[in-house]
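User: Could you check the structure of this?
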Amino acid sequence: MTPANEHDNDMTLTNRQGHPISDNQNIRTVGSRGPSTLENYHFIEKISHFDRERIPERVVHARGAGAHGYFEAYGTVGDEPVSKYTRAKLFQEKGKRTPVFVRFSSVVHGGHSPETFRDPRGFAVKFYTEDGNWDLVGNNLKVFFIRDPLKFPDMVHAFRPDPVTNLGNPERFFDFVSNSPEATHMVTFLYSPWGIPANYRQMQGSGVNTYKWVNKEGQAVLVKYHWEPLKQGIKNLTQKEAEAIQARNTSHATQDLYEAIQRGDYPEWELCVQILSDDEHPELDFDPLDPTKLWDHEKFPFLKVGKMVLNKNPENYFAEVEQSAFGTGVLVDGLDFSDDKLLQGRTFSYSDTQRYRVGTNYLQLPINAPKTHVATNQRDGQMAFIVDRAPGQSPHVNYEPSSIGGLKEAAPSGKDHEPAYNAKLVRQKLERTNDFGQAGDTYRKFEDWERDELISNLVADLSICRPEIRDRMISHFTQADADYGRRVSEGVAALLANSPHLGSVSAQEGAEIAKNSGHGTDGY
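Assistant: Sure, the predicted structure tokens are below.
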């Protein structure tokens, strides 16, 4: 019989069934590009538990603000009829308006955290279309830290406070990203002024992941979505500016959005898409499905498809903003998924989280319910207060198919999009990782003051990290751009020379130093 303590010192990662995990970086997919498969047991167990980690606050995106408005279609995509690329009804007619609800948020921190923290911002839009709801769920930055959803719970854990001390420390953040080189591009954005938007009205939005548009013939193209502020422009904050605001107001972005709408200064964004043919694009040095990458807007221009106006504040914060629930899988006819692994992982996780956090019948709440016909055979569950029954449906028949008064399938609105696959089922990264190229491009495109701010913020946080973590990060920055790595390296060396104790502090001491210096801990 095996002694109970034989594996006490074994650091092997397992799941909760005790199965050793040999690959915690890649879900199982059809070929390295995907799509993913439902039998990803480790991923589904891991993400399902992660979805339920907080009660009742959102696991991520807990701090938020929201508003109602409308989306007005242009009827075109760039200079072409939109019907060439998608049959989604909300885009077809020029001037057609679709009601929307938008929730802006920070990502990592709790419901009462200051809105000045260095953190990505959520930008989630619920379109109440005639074909049911469409949720476009994204962030203000156009890229992300990871490309495989299996890493998502670990990423958020690393960005959160220490589970023992409950103190934040930049070393946890940099420990994770230094071992995840694909995060270098996002880190470059995050530690620049783009990491602290001035408010919700003056920030961009992006779907981040790659989606598809499908036309009536079933033909598909790859698309990326972008929200660009119209009349209000884009504005970001330096660390010092953010600290000055935080000293006076921890809810400045919520207040700014509410007061702007209250006085009739309605914020507007233009929705743009980038379009690529639905193939692997071997001519690129990255995979277009990789969410850590940008599609060069000079090669793949932003094509305007409509604008969004927010013109009504919520009547009750909890009922509308807090209970609003979004999911990347909420698409309407004419919109589809790509094989982007992160998108497919999010599509399971988001709706699973809402069923746990808000309840089984979260879609019956007014803020989440579609403003069109709803008739399902789903019944019961906690807090069910209506029955999704059609007017002529027999109350005795809650199944399909049926010949005695049950619901019928809808007629197809066009040909199905049928992507074909011929690949092995594998656990692999995308072949074209190119983890550092675009990070260097982004660094070089920054203005001088943005680069100065980026270096200053990185130096402050890396200075309290262990040498091996600092060295890995500097190596990543150097591979992105030699000047980038050199400036961070020299900055850290100078700061440590003046404060040699920084290089050997404990996690708790580092957290306190970062807190007192106004850097890092208040963000990641």
